[in-house]
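Field reference: sequence -> structure
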Amino acid sequence: MVAAASGKLPVVQALVKAGANVNARTTKGDTPLMAAVLSGNVAIIKLLLSEGADKTIANAQGMTAADVARKAKNDALVKLLAGAPASEAKTGTVNPKVIEAKVDAAADAFKTGNYDRAAELFKDVVRLDSKHAMAWHFLGQSLAKTGNFNDSRNAYLTSIDIQPSGQLVDRNQEMLTKLPYEYKVHHILVKTKGEAQEIIEQLKLGESYGNLAKEKSLDSGSKDKSGDLGWVSLGVLVKPFGDAVASLRKAAFTIEPIQTQFGWHVILLEDYRIKPLSN
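Structure field:
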């Protein structure tokens, strides 16, 4: 496909019709769009864009199709590539092939350890498809690799919001527990699931968490402090409790009762922060 894109329009049209990948890459990372830019064939460039060619893909030298046009000093093609892809401008929606190409490019960047580039591309994916749970997950991983833990955490939580059940949730929760945070946690401990569920319903109606903790919690060490357990690391918490804490947004409480060997818990995450360095 890359070689054909530098040739004649009918050949490329036939390949596209046959289902050829418009974002196929050579061993050097060059794409059909780059080849068409080099040949200066505007008709082929527009065809490729309309079929989902991704103009943001970079080759092994880090050059995109627009960079190729700039190097060739072809201002008309630079201007063309600076606009929206024809597929988006024509339909008002994003061609799925564009998203697929960006996911593939982001995955390649992640696999090769280029985490900044992977994060940039996964951000592009979720801008185009905000419900792409897997892209949010890998955005979280990419950001964590670059040390951007706050945005990483938000990405994992967004992925869970979109897809709240299944294997991806387990993967998101596992990644959340690996982030270098400690948490300011409150809990209300009761004997039964029914009691915990009743407390959750009261909280949803606006009841004070602190008052409910003082009134109902069985944990004598924390109930008079509004259930406050202080700043804790996940490693000191039993797994169901710790997993629940890691999956909460700031100032949120668990909407399902959490069971441990101590009873049933309604957990509130007051805040979180990067763990202080040990002396």
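Note: The first helix runs from residue 9 to 17.
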